[in-house]
Amino acid sequence: MPDTQTVTSVTHWTDRLFSFRCTRPASLRFRSGEFVMIGLAGENGKPLLRAYSIASPNWDDELEFYSIKVPDGPLTSRLQHIRVGDPIVLRPKPVGTLVHDALLPGERLWLLATGTGLAPFASLIRDPETYERFGTVVLMHTCREASELEYGRRLVESLKDDPLIGEMVEGRLLYYPTTTREASPRMGRITDNLTSGKVFADLGLPAMTPGTDRAMICGSLAFNLDVKAVLEGLGLNEGANSEPREFVVEKAFVGDGI
Ligand SMILES: Cc1cc2nc3c(=O)[nH]c(=O)nc-3n(C[C@H](O)[C@H](O)[C@H](O)COP(=O)(O)OP(=O)(O)OC[C@H]3O[C@@H](n4cnc5c(N)ncnc54)[C@H](O)[C@@H]3O)c2cc1C
Ligand SMILES: NC(=O)c1ccc[n+]([C@@H]2O[C@H](COP(=O)([O-])OP(=O)(O)OC[C@H]3O[C@@H](n4cnc5c(N)ncnc54)[C@H](OP(=O)(O)O)[C@@H]3O)[C@@H](O)[C@H]2O)c1
């Protein structure tokens, strides 16, 4: 079947989160932060496809995805069972707004995610262009429980020893994971930690200003709307590929969440 790729590894993080890697079509070029349609062959011969952010950077030979497991979800109730060697369908037409081209130049880049909204940022924090464009990159990731942060935590940890970007991230990629429903070293919603100024104080950074700070937002619709309001309150404006500004937004999924 055209557009078929092969799964090369699968890691289960919790009973509702997993990541996997697959082969990359030789012709596929994408900008870090974009998403593609992926899925599985359907029983009627028509593939069942869903939007997925590419979690790997654009220089990687393979593709990586970070996925929810929706118990009754048409795709993920099946996708969560994939194994090494299995085929998956991938439409090689990357699109999306969480890309450098949609932001004006700035000093600091804020990557703000809940849940699987981390996926596009897993790509961007591994892309050298991110560190060429910004002096400091702050990754804020918030989940209910600590186990849901583990994929991101391990990824950030692994970058220190990465031969390509290890030196670039040192002291410049600031990771700020928080939980909201389980005690952990850092807690609180991203919106609250921005409006109270706690994150700026904890990281020793000045408050966000439209002259210096840029942001990308990826979470549920409610999260996106609330963060957008906070950033607009600080004087930042939403941009797009066609009109770069101070921040961009993309939904991590459609609906209210499982
Ligand atoms: C632009 C874009 C990028 C996306 N990137 C990713 C990604 O990188 N990883 C990923 O896991 N999903 C991603 N999604 C969601 C994905 O497209 C599917 O919805 C998801 O894989 C579930 O598919 P499904 O067929 O099992 O259930 P669906 O019928 O698609 O979803 C059922 C319900 O589950 C909830 N849900 C779906 N996805 C999520 C999620 N990620 N987190 C919490 N609740 C969810 C929603 O309430 C939804 O109505 C993205 C969606 C969009 C629009
Ligand atoms: N996470 C789990 O372990 C789990 C397990 C089984 C089922 N579920 C179900 O799955 C659904 C989605 O859960 P989820 O945890 O993936 O996503 P979620 O409810 O969107 O929460 C993810 C994180 O985002 C925060 N958040 C949510 N809305 C926000 C907003 N408007 N502004 C700022 N921060 C916001 C949450 O903080 P708060 O905690 O303060 O809301 C939480 O830390 C829910 O219906 C839940 O019942 C979740």
Automatic annotation (TrEMBL):
Sorted UniProt keywords: FAD, Flavoprotein, NADP, Nucleotide-binding, Oxidoreductase
GO BP: any one term: cellular response to oxidative stress
Pfam short name (any one): FAD_binding_6
Protein EC: 1.18.1.2
GO molecular function, a single term: ferredoxin-NADP+ reductase activity
The reaction(s) this protein catalyses: 2 reduced [2Fe-2S]-[ferredoxin] + NADP(+) + H(+) = 2 oxidized [2Fe-2S]-[ferredoxin] + NADPH
Protein origin, superkingdom: Bacteria
Class of the enzyme per the UniProt entry, highest EC level: oxidoreductase
Cofactor requirement: FAD
Presence of the UniProt keyword Nucleotide-binding in the record: yes
Methyltransferase is among the record's keywords: no
Domain FAD-binding FR-type: 1-101
Family that this chain belongs to: Belongs to the ferredoxin--NADP reductase type 1 family.
Protein name: ferredoxin--NADP(+) reductase
